[in-house]
Amino acid sequence: xPEMDLIVKLYRYSGKCAVAVFVTATEILESIARLNFQVGxxxxxxxxxxxxxxxxxxxxxxxxxxxxxxxxxxxxxxxITD
Length: 82
Known about the structure:
With about 80 residues, the chain is α+β, with helices and mostly antiparallel strands. About 45% of the residues lie in helices and about 25% in strands.
């Protein structure tokens, strides 16, 4: 899975902590597509979810105050900022 290499370069698992950023699988896919169009265009949200699970990232729920509903995603530390 080529997206695994890019996920490891972009994110580090952190759980809920002060430096954690909540990202959804869709946001991860968009970040990968910005860095590497070929991988991003062939990947999908399900592949990102499988890769995150395989890499040990824990899927969690987070309430989004702007959208007024909970989203599933991952609390991560950013290794590289866009």
